[in-house]
Design a protein that fits this description.
The protein is α/β, with parallel strands linked by helices and 376 residues long. It has 2 domains: 182 residues, FAD/NAD(P)-binding domain; 136 residues, FAD/NAD(P)-binding domain (3-Layer(bba) Sandwich). Helix content is 30%, strand content 24%. The strands form 7 sheets. Strands 5-2-1-9-19 form a 5-stranded parallel beta sheet. Strands 13-12-11-17 form a 4-stranded parallel beta sheet, covered by helices on one side. A hairpin with a 3-residue loop joins strand 7 and strand 8. Helix 1 runs parallel beside helix 10. The radius of gyration is 21 Å and the shape is globular. Bound molecules: flavin-adenine dinucleotide. Flavin-adenine dinucleotide binds next to helix 1, strand 2, helix 2, helix 10 and strand 20.
Length: 376
């Protein structure tokens, strides 16, 4: 009898896994059901380019049905509870039994978690936020932009630095940079968590005259006085505040007791299963692993899990390990980029920035759809 595989969430990880497995499963071992809260797939790295009007909304959204292999059953519905013992996922409109479950519900931003931030702050971590910020930046002629990392962990740890350097470049091109001050704040004692990356990016910030405040943990925003307040008892005025808001995992995981109180799921770092349930796995942003919350991580994990699930369904157990592999491009301006690659044992060393790497990134922004289909 076919094994029932339910993949919860059809973002980067869930979509790649469903498509890879559909193609590899030549023996028809699996009946694959994907449950996603909406019928569109979003290429989230595109938000950064929406802000600077270098990509349009239509380029980063695709109907999910067109992306998924014809063999995959797509259910557009929101999961509300998972019963791991009964092996059932409950949604707002139905229930789905599983032999294997893969949690791929990603992470969500919670701007309201920081008092005052939602009222006056901006962000580019969802489509509406990115479009609003694009319009505000277009209107702004002078003043101070404060860019703050508010929540850890958050997805794409390098996006805040890319945004800052692209902003500098964009304002310079428009002749507005002399009248707009940029201040970058970060909660740790350097501009990025990874020392080798922080060192390289600090050089770029210095060249671009971007002021930096470290050990800056935002706890509150005063919408009237337009000031951020920190745990360290500092206050900083702004005309425009761009924050990376607090993140949480999916509510269904908290409500089902499968995660910690923030929604992150503990999994085995190489096989990605929950300790208590060998038939339940989590990939991508939803996990509590010490990896970046990045599309590349979800992609690498989906590749490992596709092969392991196939092997397990045949009774042979897992055959591959995920070793923390991560790849990130880092835009260092609107026309140059670098990249980093690392894993659990190897730290990243950023490559020398170049136009060539930038264009590879721009090309990947289009080629992503082949990755989602399990082709690239
Ligand atoms: C501005 C920005 C720039 C980025 N740049 C990069 C980059 O350059 N490189 C990179 O590697 N990564 C980048 N990322 C991060 C990357 O987009 C995410 O890490 C990646 O999408 C995570 O994949 P995922 O499958 O875990 O989750 P997601 O892709 O977020 O998908 C989760 C899916 O689960 C669904 N879902 C959630 N809850 C439920 C529920 N209860 N019921 C049903 N469905 C549910 C959601 O609707 C969604 O479709 C960036 C992110 C942002 C915001």
């Amino acid at each position: 009898m076919k094994k029932k595989l339910v993949i919860l969430g059809a973002g980067t990880g869930g979509t790649i896994l469903a498509n890879l497995l559909s193609k590899k499963d030549t023996g028809n071992l699996f009946d694959i059901t994907v449950i996603n809260a909406n019928d569109k797939h979003v290429y989230q790295p595109g938000f950064l380019y929406i802000v600077f009007n270098r990509m349009q909304e239509e380029e980063i959204l695709r109907p999910l049905r067109n992306l998924l292999h014809p063999k995959v059953n797509l259910i557009v519905d929101r999961a509300t509870r998972i019963d791991p013992e009964k092996r059932v996922v409950y949604t707002e409109n139905g229930e789905y039994r599983f032999d294997y479950l893969v949690i791929a519900t990603g992470s969500r931003i919670v701007p309201e978690a920081t008092p005052g931030f939602k009222e006056v702050g901006d962000w580019f971590y969802d489509l509406e936020g990115a479009k609003r910020l694009r319009d505000r930046l277009t209107e702004m002629k002078e003043g101070r932009i404060v860019i703050s990392l508010i929540g850890i962990p958050h997805k794409c740890p390098v996006a805040i630095m890319e945004f800052t350097l692209m902003l500098h470049d964009c304002l310079t091109t428009k002749g507005k940079r002399d009248n707009i001050e940029i201040i970058y704040t970060y909660p740790l004692p350097r501009v990025q968590a990874i020392p080798t990356v922080a060192e390289r990016i600090q050089e770029h910030f210095d060249q671009a005259n971007i002021k930096v405040k470290t050990f800056f943990n935002v706890i509150e925003v005063d919408p009237e006085k337009k000031k951020v307040k920190t745990l360290e008892d500092e206050e900083l005025e702004f005309d425009l505040l761009v924050g990376i808001p607090e993140h949480r995992g999916a509510q269904v995981l908290i409500d089902s007791g499968l995660s910690n109180k923030f929604g992150w799921v503990d999994v085995d770092r190489t096989h990605l299963n929950l300790e208590k349930y060998g038939n339940i796995f989590a990939i991508g942003d939803s996990t509590n692993l010490a990896t970046s919350k990045a599309g590349s991580v979800a992609h690498y994990q989906a590749e490992v899990l596709a092969d392991n699930l196939l092997s397990m369904a045949q009774g042979y157990g897992p055959i591959k390990r995920y070793n923390g592999e991560t790849f990130c491009f880092i835009e260092t301006s609107c026309h140059e980029a670098t990249y980093i690659t690392f894993d659990y044992n190897t730290p990243p060393f950023p490559a020398k920035p170049s136009k060539y790497i930038h264009w590879v990134k721009m090309s990947y922004n289009r080629l992503y759809w082949l990755t989602a289909k399990g082709i690239l």
